[in-house]
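Aggregate trends can hide what the representation actually does to any particular protein. The sequence in question and its structure tokens are set out directly beneath this paragraph.
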Amino acid sequence: MKVAVVEDDEAMNEYIRELLVLEGFDVDVYFLGSKFLKELKKKYYNCIIMDINLRKMSGYNIIKEVKSNPETYGDFNFLILSSRIEQKDINKGLKFGAADYLKKPFDDEELILRVNLLVSRDREIQIDRKKYKEMLFDFKDKKAYYNYEVYQLTNKENKLLKCLVLNAGIIVLKEKLFYEVWGEMHIYGNKSLEVCISRLRSKIPYLKDNLINLKGIGYKLSE
């Protein structure tokens, strides 16, 4: 499970990283909000630990930016870790979209428990929400997001893309795709799959160069 730590105090940043690594988490650390936002467009985290008192851009504004633009960044569970302990500060963080709020100084075991809780919650829903390169797919709502555009998917388009996105970089056989989408074995000469693929490429231009046809074998999304 991947966790990001956004904290500009180097000692605290390293302490949290080591704590999480010992618990088996894959951890990325950030000191600047701008660097974090840039990387978030390309990465996915099961939980993000966010300090509030960052240089230049506050943690509040970072959470607000991410939560207001899911088509750009994705949707994430934020755990605010802050020395601000007044109720108004906690309410502000939750209002902006944080999933949890923990006060500094913190108990190590409590931090791990709270991170595990958010990771478990994310694990339950992440199959319905997936990033692929610069795109975000919400398979539950049958929508694809790219560059501030929202594409509504049909049932069959949604099933087809879900199978391809979950296997990105891997060749998915035509027979498997056909069965996943239409629920029956593929019959030679049936062009329904090819028609659906063509329609997706026309609907979502970003897929034109990334949805690869391995003639006679199957399809894959490029890595």
In short: The CA atoms of residues 10 and 91 lie 27 Å apart.
